[in-house]
């Protein structure tokens, strides 16, 4: 049930406050709203049909596509076997299409994050009664009745005091009515209930911004990154805020071009991006680096499998990058071609500055690294702000 609940509430959670996406035009907007309302009611097929109508009415809007991706992800969470795999693949494909139209579309970003991460975030699963009240509130909210939805959200919070999302949505009801202090109160309470609720911190930042509390808003965004570093909408807001005061940030935009899978025969297989096939062209060094990265991962995981030892994902990630960087250093030292991808160059820069672990944690975070990340935060209480101030990098 946890995955189903997370998927069906995701739309409201990421779109509560001002976000950067391509909204549908006047002709498509009512259809988009109908789709969202149908989704809140659990009518997935009807919701997709409405989103498709909205996409047809406004082919340049990202939001109808991100809405479809979210519905498909919710459907996948209820499916089994090949159907589950197919729906997840479709969801990822549509989410990527949405991002070609609106690169900062928060719903598409979150759908991809959930699909591609290796573990769910450690957030509280609500009781069935609290969940039911929340869903009833969602239907009212999507029908344009935030005050009535608030009653249901508050009921949900009473039924399960550990359910921080109930407070987030209660705050959203006030936010929709432009009642910023009341919204702030509920968003802040959500962060107190679950400090790892990154969305609660992001929405708190929105409420603070509308009240002109810029410093507090930025601090809330840093807390949101500390909660869940791979929530791109939080980084988007931080980058926008810093750009306004003359401190722009650079996106790493690391596109992973090698992956490792365990096949049906129990063997690890490397999938290298097709752009590196043929061993020719200007990206030879980049391909060599990705191949070295994946080869180290295969060797490490194969050894763990043989020794019947559990993988330590973050340790493998760091060691894989170090091995890949060493290969490129040796190639360049021998007169060979250097890497050219700006993202790989930034990874090397961080490694030379002894910031590889920190950079990976913040810019390439996976939930399976939670233990190492929490230990790093404890040892470096101001580490995230210091990293951003020094390198001005974001995912």
Automatic annotation (TrEMBL):
Keywords on record: Signal, TPR repeat
Entry-linked InterPro entries: TPR-like_helical_dom_sf, TPR_rpt
Keyword Membrane part of the UniProt annotation: no
SUPFAM superfamilies for the chain: TPR-like
Pfam family, one: TPR_19
TPR repeat positions: 28-61, 164-197
Superkingdom in the source lineage: Bacteria
Kinase found in the keyword field: no
Protein known as: Tetratricopeptide repeat protein
């Amino acid at each position: 049930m946890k995955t189903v609940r997370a998927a069906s509430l995701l739309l409201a959670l990421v779109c509560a406050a001002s976000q950067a996406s391509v909204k549908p035009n006047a002709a498509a907007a009512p259809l988009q709203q109908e789709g969202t309302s149908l989704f809140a009611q659990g009518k997935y097929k009807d919701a997709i049909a409405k989103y498709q109508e909205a996409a047809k009415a406004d082919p340049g809007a990202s939001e109808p596509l991100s809405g479809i991706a979210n519905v498909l992800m919710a459907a996948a969470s209820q499916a089994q076997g090949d159907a589950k795999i197919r729906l997840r693949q479709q969801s990822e494909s549509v989410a990527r299409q949405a991002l070609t139209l609106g690169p900062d579309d928060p719903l598409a970003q979150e759908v991809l994050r959930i699909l591609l991460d290796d573990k769910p975030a450690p957030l509280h699963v609500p009781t069935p009664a609290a969940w039911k009240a929340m869903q009833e509130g969602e239907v009212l909210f999507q029908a344009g009745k935030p005050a009535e939805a608030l009653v249901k959200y508050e009921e949900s919070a009473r039924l399960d005091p550990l359910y921080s999302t109930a407070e987030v949505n209660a705050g959203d009801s006030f936010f929709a009515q432009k009642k910023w202090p009341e919204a702030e109160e509920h968003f802040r309470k959500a962060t107190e209930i679950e400090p790892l609720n990154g969305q609660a911190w992001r929405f708190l930042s929105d409420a603070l911004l509308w009240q002109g509390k810029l410093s507090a808003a930025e601090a809330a965004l840093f807390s949101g990154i500390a909660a869940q570093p791979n929530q791109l909408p939080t980084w988007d807001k931080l980058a926008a805020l810093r750009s306004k005061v003359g401190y722009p940030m650079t996106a790493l935009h690391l596109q992973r071009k090698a992956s490792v899978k365990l096949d049906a025969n129990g063997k690890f297989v490397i999938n290298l991006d097709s752009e590196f096939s043929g061993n020719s062209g200007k990206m030879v060094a980049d391909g060599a680096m990705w191949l070295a990265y994946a080869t180290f991962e295969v060797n490490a995981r194969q050894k763990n499998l043989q020794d019947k030892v559990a993988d330590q994902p973050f340790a493998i990630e760091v060691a894989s990058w170090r091995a890949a960087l060493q290969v490129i250093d040796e190639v360049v030292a021998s007169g060979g071609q250097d890497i050219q991808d700006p993202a790989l160059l930034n990874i090397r820069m961080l490694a030379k500055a002894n910031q590889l672990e920190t950079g990976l944690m913040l810019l390439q975070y996976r939930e399976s690294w939670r233990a190492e990340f929490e230990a790093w935060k404890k040892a470096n209480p101001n580490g995230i702000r210091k990293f951003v101030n020094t390198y001005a990098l974001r995912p």
